[in-house]
Automatic annotation (TrEMBL), chains A, B:
Protein's recorded name: L-fuconate dehydratase
Source organism (scientific name): Vreelandella gomseomensis
SUPFAM superfamilies reported in the protein's UniProt record: Enolase C-terminal domain-like (SSF51604), Enolase N-terminal domain-like (SSF54826)
Listed EC numbers: 4.2.1.68
Cofactor(s) listed in the protein's UniProt record: Mg(2+)
Catalysed reaction equations from the record: L-fuconate = 2-dehydro-3-deoxy-L-fuconate + H2O
UniProt cross-references to PROSITE patterns, sorted A to Z: MR_MLE_2
Mandelate racemase/muconate lactonizing enzyme C-terminal domain boundaries: 198-294
InterPro entries named in the record: Enolase-like_C_sf (IPR036849), Enolase-like_N (IPR029017), Enolase_C-like (IPR029065), L-fuconate_dehydratase (IPR034610), Mandel_Rmase/mucon_lact_enz_CS (IPR018110), Mandelate_racemase_C (IPR013342), Mandelate_racemase_N_dom (IPR013341), RHMD-like (IPR046945)
Enzyme kind, highest EC tier: lyase
Keywords carried by this UniProt record: Lyase, Magnesium, Metal-binding
Pfam family, one: MR_MLE_C
């Protein structure tokens, strides 16, 4: 019997705010970070890595919550844990002393995401399969037993979920072949951060098109003249055929969002992302009513706290592009229910990515969505940001503007030992060097 | 100039789970706790106390977040801080490294509540007034400048808020006189915790009526036969004229909630509280549609994460009784906007209380609501639970089933030094004794 002998926790931070990477209308000092854990077993070759993405000082708080949740797994039988990750998830969700702090949202939910990401990584490694394949190989009834469908039965029952997954199985091989050949289309946000100069914006837009991207996203929400000028620059560089999306990072109230987006419609905008509070289902519906006549869709979900929020966004017809976050929803157990609901309401899931390692996880999730849940791939596009991948043992592979199928066993969540040594906070060698530099 | 010289943080926990106090359909081991802080100044007679209510191990995580938020106030000028608590609130909300962990929800929001509760306590102490009076004395335009109205302008603008507050000012003296004479009606939950025996339930219901309560609340959501039997016992003891409310603590999905509540309607139920996920605005609307024809209203808000959720509950006509929580919403800055929106939609605010110190804070909030915001008092009733008040320097005063006007300066948030010594976790003397007892 293999058991979990210990759990390693690492506070990993990168000084991304130095270069204005990640700057937007709300986030000014975004030091991309990961609250990282590793489930260690008494078999040296078997372990599970997971994390949630945070920013700077937020990492402390997440790690404390991860510790409070995960420690119960020390001493557990790995075979049992991996056979039934849904049981582990339910155990974490039922911790009534931590439930009060949510429930199902904020720090304790991010922590649950991190821990369950590690459990799923462990389960897939143990099976010797990349996670997307591990999931797609599961019998629908087994997969559904591992999902969190609580509070969803007015939209999705377990029987319905099983039937939906069964129906897609016939297309499995053909879809995997398609992914092997073409991958899953992605778009780049790297071009359009708010802190970049016009010259840098122009250069990055040109480079993105040359690299094969068919979608470009720009941050908006500063002053209206800047937004107008920057969209003009981008559209003139990329031409009329490439899709242009804009992202306001929650800066506006509802009436202001409608007005500001309508004013930018003449640039031919595919979607407005996070126009207002991520919690405002009815507000997103009002915004959708205001901008859909201009041919613009509403995208949200990066801060979508849980499955109940996504249920409502879909019920209210408040969203056109469903942007799940792989480290905010509580891992596979909660993400697949959202994929299923989106399928039922015929809305494309276009995952949020970037940060630290979100692209690595998303490169599995989009494959699961396409192969096992949603089918038709047209109009679907996942976010990709080209930074920090060098820290991952199994980085996502992007080719000609598409995520390629991950091949290594696990959830691609393992960070290189060298990167942990260099960037662990505050003791990492790179952070020590920076402190020395600041003192001289 | 008086400045803040340090901040004391205390992890305070009480072993309330021993006696099944606080047991309900979801919370099985509710050790009531407070993540407590005290803003210390260089004037020994001036300080500010605040806390957020949590349960057991959740306290660690909240304290870490409170520390991360509050430390910036060390060295600040007390006069400036107290003149403009809205500025302090906005500064905490704008911390972009912590914002990612919410935004406006979960641990970081609970922490903001604790810190701002301490700031408001400090401001009221400095003015030598109980907080309710400090607030009611503020010019409407000044008060509104201190509120967080972000994301609310589709329902409530600053100008509208000022006008609403101005309109109520003429009734100020008459309402204060009324409160001095009669207080603000409350109801008791102490009778109906799920872990209590039928005999204890019967005895506590009888005692509550004898003490003058006109409303009794029971926990439901176990098996249907138990709910039916317990409601029968309660109704037979309290007679037909006293209001009976039920609280499911989020145990049901939407269709089940409707069915289960309809089955209990023959006991003449005033409200069903927390029938499902607290995040499910549209679900609460469906439940309201299902139970209102039976004369039952929907109550929710104890886990209502922020003002945007309450905005939607009101917009969707999904709630009949608005149950704000004084330590989950981010203090006065966010609570008064919810009171104003409820007034606009003509829904009574019936605050959640209990836990540790929630009644103390609520005894100010209901007075502010009645005197400055909502006016007519009919149909309004605030929760009261009779435990842990002995730990407070200025405990709330309840007489004949009504909260009486607090008279001591501040927000009644200060915990006795002796209680901190005894119940601080893990070093408190009472906890040490219990560990010794467990070891013998």
């Amino acid at each position: 019997m293999t058991i979990i002998t210990s759990i390693e926790f690492v506070d990993l931070r990168f000084p991304t705010s130095d270069s204005h990477d990640g700057s937007d209308a709300v986030n000014k000092d975004a030091d991309y970070s990961a609250a990282y854990l590793r489930l260690v077993t008494d078999d040296d070759s078997l372990y599970g890595c997971g994390f949630t993405f945070t920013i700077g000082r937020g990492n402390d708080i997440c790690l404390q919550a991860i510790d409070a949740l995960a420690n119960r797994f020390i001493g557990r039988d790995v075979t049992e844990l991996c056979a039934n990750p849904g049981e582990a998830y339910r155990e974490l969700a039922a911790d009534s002393q931590l439930r009060w702090l949510g429930p199902d949202k904020g720090v304790v939910h991010l922590a649950r995401a991190a821990v369950m990401n590690a459990v799923w990584d462990l389960a897939a490694r143990r099976a010797g399969l990349p996670l997307w394949q591990f999931i797609c190989d599961m019998e629908p009834v087994t997969l559904v037993a591992n999902l969190d469908l609580s509070y969803l039965s007015d939209v999705l029952t377990a029987d319905e979920a099983v039937a939906m997954l069964e129906e897609q199985r016939q297309h499995r091989e053909e879809r995997i072949s398609n992914l092997q050949a073409n991958g899953f289309q992605c778009y780049t946000t790297s071009a359009g951060w708010l802190g970049y100069s016009d010259e840098k914006l122009e250069r990055l837009c040109r480079e993105a098109v040359e690299e094969g991207y068919r979608h470009i996203k720009l941050k908006v929400g500063g002053n209206p003249e800047d937004d107008e000028r920057r969209l003009g620059i981008a559209r003139s560089v990329i031409g009329p055929d490439i899709s242009l999306m804009i992202d306001a990072n929650q800066i506006w109230d509802v009436p202001e969002a409608i007005e500001r987006v309508q004013a930018l419609a003449h640039h031919n905008v595919l979607w407005i992302e996070e126009p207002t509070s991520p919690d405002d289902v009815l507000g997103h519906r009002s915004i959708a009513d205001g901008v859909r006549p201009e041919g613009i869709g509403v995208a949200t979900g990066e801060h979508g706290m849980n499955r109940v929020l996504f249920k409502q966004l879909l019920q209210a017809d408040a969203v056109d592009f469903v942007q799940i976050d792989s480290c905010r929803l509580a891992s596979i157990n909660e993400i697949i229910p959202v994929l299923l609901m989106a399928k039922k309401f015929a809305k494309p899931v276009c995952p949020h990515a970037g940060g630290v390692g979100l692209c690595e996880l998303v490169s599995h999730l989009v494959m699961i969505d396409y192969v096992a849940v949603s089918g038709p791939i047209e109009g679907r596009v996942a976010e990709y940001v080209d930074h920090l991948h060098e820290h991952f043992v199994d980085p996502c592979i992007v080719s000609k503007g598409a995520y390629m199928l991950p091949e290594a066993p696990g959830y691609s969540a393992e960070i290189k030992a060298e990167s942990l040594t260099r960037w662990a906070w505050p003791e990492g060698t790179e952070w020590a060097k920076r402190r020395e530099g600041a003192n001289t």
